Amino acid sequence: KSRIISVANQKGGVGKTTTAVNMAAALAILKKKVLLIDCDSQGNATSGLGVEPQAFEKHLYHVLSGSADHEDVTRPTPISGLDLIPSNTDLVGIEIELAGREDREKILKDFLKPLDSYDYMILDCPPSLGLMTINALTASNSVIIPMQCEYYALEGLSQLVQTIRLVKHSFNPRLHIEGLLLTMYDYRTKLTYQVARDVRTHFRDLVYRTTIPRNIRLSESPSHGKPIFLYDPRSKGAESYLALAREFLNCQRSK
Amino acid sequence: KSRIISVANQKGGVGKTTTAVNMAAALAILKKKVLLIDCDSQGNATSGLGVEPQAFEKHLYHVLSGSADHEDVTRPTPISGLDLIPSNTDLVGIEIELAGREDREKILKDFLKPLDSYDYMILDCPPSLGLMTINALTASNSVIIPMQCEYYALEGLSQLVQTIRLVKHSFNPRLHIEGLLLTMYDYRTKLTYQVARDVRTHFRDLVYRTTIPRNIRLSESPSHGKPIFLYDPRSKGAESYLALAREFLNCQRSK
Ligand SMILES: Nc1ncnc2c1ncn2[C@@H]1O[C@H](COP(=O)(O)OP(=O)(O)OP(=O)(O)O)[C@@H](O)[C@H]1O
Ligand SMILES: Nc1ncnc2c1ncn2[C@@H]1O[C@H](COP(=O)(O)OP(=O)(O)OP(=O)(O)O)[C@@H](O)[C@H]1O
Ligand SMILES: [Mg+2]
Ligand SMILES: [Mg+2]
What we know:
The structure is a homodimer. Chain A is α/β, with parallel strands linked by helices.
């Protein structure tokens, strides 16, 4: 059966998309069958894999509004073993459109339920705790929380943890934190050291040992529409996301 | 009469809050009377000025839901001449609560209309194009767009410009782009050079000559609850935000 993992954090710019795209690609390279779902109307996970936002007719918006099924929207990517359900700006209005429905939190969960040919499904969430992120959390087994070692990112953690608890209690009893990932890690600054210490003290073993360093190749690769492994496989960014995927799989095995 | 300016960009982590807090503080230092309004449920602009999210009973949520007026929510800050209307996580549900109202886009505009004792009102927007950002754009004379010189930030610009056009057409004919601000500017990388060139080619004089360099003191100052001018007035961050405020005032004079 597929495991479904959200990559979520309402704080903006902490590396959610970079983690979702490169973790999904790394798992495919390690011979897992993976589906990446772009749940953000910015469509960054979609363009990060080289798919132009206007190149497809049906996408996640049509799934959630009930006018498409998964064959219509799922497409292959440059990495064998990795499929994508894309998104674009049409998704902006979905939260207001779904607000009145009885099952508004469970629409994504019901859609993903029958898809069992994947080992993992990775959901890239938008920078908010609105209905789209709630749908992703309700559909998931667990959540990976990327965070920068900065003050505002640290401040937002308690709100995120509280939201995960609420979703677990009201909609999805199996939901738990898969792990916290420290991104754009800059060894030289005191702020990074202090925030990392706070996070590890508070979340202990939930924090991945693997950290992702600030690495310019990671921010260049989306402009070439490629995950880091196709853009610069020898970069520090590629090494660290491969190490993260291995650490993640080791945790899975011991569950 | 007050000029109202939104600081907006749906791309996360581009420096909206850092710009709103430090630009508002710089204008107050230059003897303007300024009101900063935190329109983001993360409450970063609030804590960036040293106000604890639980330290106030009434805040922006109560204004928008009609249970408070501006005397109840406006508070002084450590910078003389700068007042704040704070926010906290209570604001998360406001978009769904307002979705059904007839005047849902104009609630903030109607609230701000009578407040004319300020020279400038600065609105810090969340990383989305939902109802809260639409309210801010509908209430504003103009919009400052902070952006990092990165691919995903560049990709999001067309969606933001389109949204500004839509709001101008449907709700607020005076709305225009005040300027684009290049933030976390790293002179050493090719990516910064390429994105900055693309932005200046496309937006020409709308791009501020002042750029904000990546400067660790800017990310340290919120953890001390102070704008950069009280934390490290001689830092590159303080210099650049003061230069931005002067460039902004020069543009105002020539309007
Ligand atoms: N380790 C890294 N080193 C350097 N740049 C990075 C790294 N991780 C992400 N970036 C860059 O930082 C920016 C923010 O990352 P990303 O867009 O993945 O964050 P996000 O959390 O998905 O943002 P949003 O909140 O807008 O969805 C992007 O321009 C990305 O290319
Ligand atoms: N010029 C800069 N140099 C270094 N760090 C910066 C700079 N500007 C902002 N930062 C840091 O980068 C992070 C993102 O900035 P900020 O929170 O202001 O962006 P934002 O657009 O308001 O984010 P969100 O989308 O979550 O509202 C913060 O941790 C901030 O302290
Ligand atoms: Mg993203
Ligand atoms: Mg912000």
